[in-house]
Amino acid sequence: MAPLKKSKKTKKDSKKFKKIKHKNKKNKSIGIVAVENKGSSECDWWDSFWHKNSPTPGCGVPCDEEDGFKYFFRVSKKTFDYICSLVREDLISRPPSGLINIEGRLLSVEKQVAIALRRLASGESQVSVGASFGVGQSTVSQVTWRFIEALEERAKHHLKWPEPIQTSDDWCDQENNYSMLLQGIVDSEMRFLDIVTGWPGGMATSRLLKFSGFYKLCESGDRLNGNVKVVEGEELREYIIGGFGYPLLPWLITPYEGDDLSDAMLDFNALHETARSVAVKAFALLKGGWRILNKVMWRPDKQKLPSIILVCCLLHNIIIDCGDRLHPDVALSGHHDPGYEGQSCKQIESTGRLMRDKLTKHLQGISSPRKKRASSKSFASDHAEDKNGVQVQDLSECRRGYFMVLEYM
């Protein structure tokens, strides 16, 4: 479409506009600013555009205005208004000079967006697009690039990697209950030091660990990074212990698995289990003290449930920090549901294997077979737990004055 010729009236108005502009410059007053003024800006741009580009027989443009709008700009009027809302602030706040049509009126935000969309949708030349809107080629160029820069900045949230789709099976654990995992690290006083929750009960514990911030901190050297301790000529770094469901890592020590274990390995496993029982008891107290965690919830809100779990852990710690104690009958017999069978993780890092062997060698000198038998006979009685407390200290003194245990429920 060729550019439209200016009428005499238009030329006259244009000259008048230039005179006003020149006068403003002379008086040092404010020049043209693209503000949202309904009186002076072109808010009826669509009527004008539709009249100029109204369909003719055989042109392929829909006769219905709503369909015609979508034909020219590729979006509905509702989506068009949304796009305008995204870029409105940028198009108003940083107006370049000259954003006027051939009649000398400022371009509205809506008309600027329409020009840019038409240029992008049609691929026509700037001259042709300008003619259909009654603006010059340079205006089309400025408007299009301002729109592109604004939308590039304001619409980034529409370009993102999708969240993992979680089906109902993801939340179904081994007992076919819909549940949410809680992973925690506790100290020797059964205080929670770190927790991770919000993940579905069907997730493997080793995968849950790798999603945690604690794992990322340990792998980057920002956690469990205390000075290396030399014990009997062996260097022992800071570490925590975990059950069979976790990988064997240099900072996460798991027990030996298999049927053909040496006496030293069995001794190590016995001490390991005694230390881990502290975490098991902490979780049993948590679920027993705050029974909402042990009940079946009717249509729980998966967004709010992590907050409920966190607050229960905080209350658990407050009781310990204040020197208070829960009634001994509060604790549950176990922190997992009846019939639960833990999963075994087969991931073993060579540096983790070396660290565990060093610990085993050291413990072999301070732990006797008699102690091992005492610890393996009974964890039920308080008296046995008191005796085993010495062995827990044996395990912890390899590195520090207290120990940390990784467990989940």
UniProtKB/TrEMBL annotation:
Residues 168-317 form the DDE Tnp4 domain. InterPro entries: HARBI1-like, HARBI1_dom. The keyword Hydrolase applies. Residues 1-26, 363-385 are annotated as: Disordered. It is found in: Nucleus. The keyword Hydrolase applies. GO terms for molecular function: hydrolase activity; metal ion binding; nuclease activity. Transmembrane segments: none annotated. Keywords: Hydrolase, Metal-binding, Nuclease, Nucleus. GO terms for cellular component: nucleus. Belongs to the HARBI1 family. This is Nuclease HARBI1 isoform X2. The gene is LOC107830852.
